[in-house]
Amino acid sequence: MAEARKNEAVSLSRTRRTLPIALLRAREQLMDRFRPMLLSHGVTEQQWRVLRVLNENAEMDATDLAEKACVLGPSLSRIIKALEARALIHVGKHPKDGRRAVIKLSHEGQQFVETVARESAAIYKTIEAKVGADRIGSVLNDLEELTAALQSPD
Amino acid sequence: MAEARKNEAVSLSRTRRTLPIALLRAREQLMDRFRPMLLSHGVTEQQWRVLRVLNENAEMDATDLAEKACVLGPSLSRIIKALEARALIHVGKHPKDGRRAVIKLSHEGQQFVETVARESAAIYKTIEAKVGADRIGSVLNDLEELTAALQSPD
DNA sequence: TCATTATCTTTAACGTGTTAAATATATAGG
DNA sequence: CCTATATATTTAACACGTTAAAGATAATGA
């Protein structure tokens, strides 16, 4: 059994100690705590990101919304249909540029966001209590630096 | 424009400075650098994770493989079919437990992993050069601590 | 003005994520 | 031995991720 554990440790150091997988695992651990709540409100994680971004920006076109909510264009097209069908958002056209959509929260959408945001904040607090706000801050700083470094030219 | 930038900064501090989104963004930045290479070899990111884990473990059942490769059971079922159809893996049954599968790399699979692993390592090195090995190590440590804290009881 | 090129959004096709349920085999208790 | 329960894997259904391409509108230049 000591031997088996040794082999496992070796394999972990190879695939697990790699940035993409470490990021994926950490994210799974986190989302496992949010998903049941989102499911109970009938939204997916991605739909929720879109709603939150809209709540902070009043009016956006699809390109900006996709960028800030971290979803791809094709996914956003489907999400917009779903959210519009539930009357959580309004979709119009830009008056000066017929290509652009103008997307905003409906009144129901705003109320929905408030409700879910409260529950989301409560879950985030339990995570903070467990992990430590300082550690979360340090991870966020590291991740921002990492992302910035990857985006820099060359 | 200074005003527009200020608004943007505020919104970023709200949705962007949140653990799930920061993890997602960092991961996207990284995978954008690996995906074209994987696509050129005809494997998805998830299939590649499965192959790598198999390369480090010789023989596994589906449950362990799914856990270590960070894919869900239903996804693994589909991935196994795809990789078996390409003869990159062999799938058998556990001799003492008819429920379990026994999955291992084929000879072609081993060669495939070697080829792709070389290119993958080269890409990882360019990332290391850009980001700094020290920073990567620090992010990995933070993420491991975060994941451990989230998994701890209560 | 007209054709060309660029930009915004959607559609298509296929693979994966997620949840629930089905299937098959093992194990435990009576 | 037989039934009930647990475990391993697959299937189903629906949403998103990813790439490529199509459709629609703007901007550009001859």
Automatic annotation (TrEMBL), chains A, B:
Report which superkingdom the organism of origin falls in. Answer: Bacteria
Entries under Pfam families matching the protein: MarR
> Residue ranges of the HTH marR-type domain?
16-148
Q: Which Gene Ontology terms describe the biological processes this protein takes part in?
A: negative regulation of DNA-templated transcription; response to stress
- Annotated membrane-spanning segments are none
**Molecular function terms, GO-annotated:** DNA binding; DNA-binding transcription factor activity
Q: Which InterPro entries match?
A: HpaR/FarR (IPR012712), HTH_MarR-typ (IPR000835), MarR/SlyA-like (IPR039422), WH-like_DNA-bd_sf (IPR036388), WH_DNA-bd_sf (IPR036390)
Gene3D superfamilies listed in its UniProt record:
Winged helix-like DNA-binding domain superfamily/Winged helix DNA-binding domain
- Full protein name: Transcriptional regulator, MarR family
Q: Which PANTHER family match?
A: 4-HYDROXYPHENYLACETATE CATABOLISM PROTEIN, TRANSCRIPTIONAL REGULATOR, MARR FAMILY
